Amino acid sequence: MKVLVTGGLGFIGSHTVVELQNVGFEVVIIDDLSNSSEEVLNGITSITGKTPIFEKLDLKEKSKVEDFFKKYDDIEGVIHFAASKAVGESVELPLLYYENNIGTLVYILKELSKKDKAGFIFSSSCTVYGQADKMPITEDAPVKSAESPYGNTKQVGEEIIRDTCKVTPSLQAIALRYFNPMGAHPSAKIGELPIGVPQNLVPFITQTGVGLREKLSVFGDDYPTKDGTCVRDYIHVVDLAKAHVVALQRLLEGKNKENYEVFNVGTGTGSTVLEVINSFEKVSGKKLNYQIVDRREGDITAAYADTAKANNELGWKAESTLDEAMKSAWDWEVKVRS
Fold this sequence. Notes:
This protein has a 7-stranded parallel beta sheet with strand order 3-2-1-4-5-6-11, with helices on both faces. Strands 12-9-14 form a 3-stranded mixed beta sheet. A two-stranded parallel sheet has the order 7-10. The model has no long low-confidence stretch (mean pLDDT 96). By secondary structure, the protein is an alpha/beta fold. It is built from 11 helices and 14 strands. Helix 3 runs parallel beside helix 5 and helix 5 runs parallel beside helix 6. Strand 5, helix 6 (149-167) and strand 6 (171-178) form a beta-alpha-beta unit.
């Protein structure tokens, strides 16, 4: 069975390609290499023994998207990761984010709508909830007004998919709202490799630990949490990748209850920034150079998932601990810098 993974050479995309190949899918990757490297293909091949088909393509070019689906007319499912994802950058460049994240989604859905049957997995985010009224966050929690153009593209993306599914019975879709991915494949052959200064906590921690960054800034220690720092739900990227595979199988096997469904993907456990730092110090044996600074605008106090729906409906559960995920992130960082 042939499936398309857009953004398949990125952090989450590459790990998902590995898990898809591990269960026998034939994978085609689209990536424009704007935030990834073709070398990731070698890592995927080394892990699975199979080289996925790779097409370098900018999904903003509508005619090229049409040509792709004519060439690969036997694609039965799509997992859509390709998107710009830096919150701060989205505030400065909103039109770039709307074009890249919304326009490309529309072009893909147009092509899938022509098929007799197609499964579509959307890479959504817990950012759609904003600061939820209560923890843990269930899928029924209200979607709050977005804090950034990036967050808004996830909300609008979900609405576009839902509206398309209403009028296209042949399209079966699942939006996975995931929390905070971290870690790397246990082989240390693929992992997170942000271009420029990392936007996420864990790669900033590991880059500081390896000496690439001078120190980590912890934004605020006066939040109403157990140690005053923000709380997030950190999920191992391999666990997250497996959730995509299970969700796609659900659609392709016709086990979904509606043709548009939403699932949270997290561990169900919230960790503070200081707990994440402590985890790093434990698995690496290093003291981390960090300092407490003022709060950062736009940061919410806490977000962690209620995973009951994914556990019960998908039969999926996160398996790795924070320490295991951190150890894999550190092993990857050390390997990349050696």
